[in-house]
Amino acid sequence: MPDPKPIPTNYNVAAAQVTAAQGELLTDYTTLPALPWSGLADLVGPPLPRDLWVVASRPANGKTTLAVNLFDHFVRERRPTLYVGAGAEGPPKDLRRLWAALRCNYPAHLALENQWAALPDGAQERMFAELQRQATEDHDVAHFSDVGERLTPAALVKALKGGRREGCQYVILDHIHRVRFAAAADLRRALGEATRFLRDMAAKYDWTVIVCAQLHRADARSGPLRDLVPPTVSDLKETGTLEEDAVVALLLHRTRRPTATAQDVAAVVRNERPVDDIMAPRTMCVRVGKHRRRGHVHDHCAFLHVGEDGRLTEKAPEWRSRQTPEERYDL
Known about the structure:
Blueprint: H1 10-24, H2 38-44, E1 52-57, H3 63-76, E2 81-85, H4 92-104, H5 108-112, H6 123-136, E3 142-145, H7 153-165, E4 170-174, H8 187-205, E5 208-214, H9 241-245, E6 248-253, H10 262-269, E7 283-291, E8 301-306, E9 312-314, H11 325-329
Parallel strand pairs: 1-5, 1-6, 2-3, 2-4, 4-5
Antiparallel strand pairs: 6-7, 7-8, 8-9
């Protein structure tokens, strides 16, 4: 005879919950890989199991760049990771070439367009060897899901089942606004259900799920400075569920040069100078839009350098030292 279940008294319920909480105290999170950029890692800490992270930006502001860098980092740490690509980067064969170009330190556009003459001697052979290495050395930790021409909810579920079979610990979806729903008339509700599904899968299987998402374009009334307007989580397209369910929301945007003066900005506003004159070149601003565990870091920023090969590296803190907070946000 099986042991009888305890009567669900207030004490029994509380005791079970306390036992589970005490068990969590023994979890060693120091073994998890931190983010590969110390400034950002110090702000937000490591992605934990059961977390849903959102990485959002306006178009062409670095979602896929950050996603591929994170994928490469987790794979180097030998953590099984699933990349579900639903963007313009194409099927797994193209994403693998994009990843290979990053590993070889080649500009992605040159490698993807097979412009071998514009790359160092032997680039084609090195890319071939790097792709071969993906199969021989990283096949057990690096997984790209082939979702076909359309990322439908059914294709997403199939991809996640594949990731579970492979024992994946991290799931990167690039990006959720490209999921194709049949009931397009109620897109907001469908996206909300997809977000809740991803959150539930993270909790059920101890995954860390990182979802790339699109932000609304800045208000046109901002004129030529619209690309410099810092976004907020309320700018997420179509659904508030991403904002509600995310443990961490990172907002990517461009920023101005620390040496740009108020006169320089005024000249851009008057259309006397192009906005590129005051934009910091190859600089990604990563703003913390939300952090459920670390509310004190809300609206704090880390700055990353975007290399020609798409590799993201730390920008030294002193890079912003010449600019006061008032100048930083006075657009």
